[in-house]
Automatic annotation (TrEMBL):
GO molecular function: glutamate racemase activity
Active site: C70, C182
Name assigned to this protein: Glutamate racemase
Organism per entry: Filifactor alocis (strain ATCC 35896 / CCUG 47790 / D40 B5)
A Pfam family per the record: Asp_Glu_race
Pathway annotation from the record: Cell wall biogenesis; peptidoglycan biosynthesis
Cited InterPro entries: Asp/Glu/hydantoin_racemase (IPR015942), Asp/Glu_race (IPR001920), Asp/Glu_racemase_AS_1 (IPR018187), Glu_race (IPR004391)
HAMAP family hit by this protein: Glu_racemase (MF_00258)
Biological role: Provides the (R)-glutamate required for cell wall biosynthesis.
Top-level taxonomic group: Bacteria
Gene Ontology BP terms: cell wall organization; peptidoglycan biosynthetic process; regulation of cell shape
Residue sites binding substrate per the record: D7, S8, Y39, G40, N71, T72, T183, H184
Length: 257
């Protein structure tokens, strides 16, 4: 089975990382659109143009299913849009439903961190209207974290100062959970943990997305597991493959935080 996974950059590696643990026998094709990252600061029209090009790439690779491992891209790729293509397409959304179901008491606050397009988009607003009955969730856009992640700048003082400054109007100890509504944000769990209460839980959409993949595209097992990496359609170089190893090692470090 050939499974495509794409993101604006290396954030979607957190989805791939989870998929590799859950699906041991599949061929994965990972596409990082590095020449156009970050998506969260582009227009909807620009992002849809990028997605069209990426879809054509995956058609040429004869994938059996595709995961849009990017909350921003998923927020502009509507169901009607996805239905145009000849394979199941699984999008992502911030795991607000899971967070609300876990923290149902009214006083338990949830912080949803994402990119500006996701925060401002109708898809997230509709989701909140549907599941956040007690208005537990607050929203915050943290676009610079995407830049920090792409630079492999995970634990610097600059990162923590950026998060602290962005959170000036929030009381960190009030939050029981942080919804990581951008796949790039998984790399920064240690920084969030130092700022928020030790009891604050991280919730992302990776597990739910892979479960949805398995529902929509029942697994046809390959003989082994393999991964191919592409950067904006070009096979990853040796240097880029070494970078990817660094990112995957980081994800393994923070996986259980």
């Amino acid at each position: 089975m050939n499974i495509g996974i794409f993101d604006s950059g290396i954030g979607g590696l957190s989805v791939l990382h989870h998929a590799l643990k859950i699906i041991p026998h599949a061929n994965f094709i990972y596409y990082a659109d590095r020449k156009n990252v970050p998506y969260g600061e582009k227009s909807v029209f620009e992002i849809q143009t990028f997605i069209d090009e990426i879809m054509n790439f995956f058609i040429s690779k004869k994938v059996d299913a595709l995961v849009i491992a990017c909350n921003t891209a998923s927020s502009v790729a509507t169901k009607e849009y996805r239905d145009k293509f000849p394979f199941p397409i699984i999008g992502m959304e911030p795991a607000v439903k899971k967070a609300v179901e876990t923290y149902t008491e009214k006083q338990q606050r949830i912080l949803v961190a994402a990119t500006p397009i996701t925060i401002q988009g109708n898809k997230l607003r509709q989701l909140l209207n549907r599941v956040d009955k007690y208005h537990q969730a607050d929203l915050i856009a943290l676009p610079k974290l995407v830049h920090f992640a792409e630079l492999k700048q995970f634990d610097s003082l600059e990162v923590e100062e950026y998060i602290k400054t962005a959170l000036n109007q929030y009381c960190a100890v009030d939050y029981s959970a942080i919804v990581l509504g951008c796949t790039h944000f998984n790399y920064f769990k240690p920084s969030f943990q130092r700022i928020f209460s030790k009891k604050t839980q991280f919730i992302d959409g990776n597990e739910g997305t892979i479960k949805q993949l398995l529902r929509k595209a029942p697994l046809i097992e390959s003989y082994s597991q393999s991964v191919q990496f592409y950067f904006s359609g070009i096979p990853a170089t040796t240097k880029e493959l070494n970078e990817i190893k660094t990112y995957l090692s980081r994800l393994e470090e923070v996986y259980y935080l």
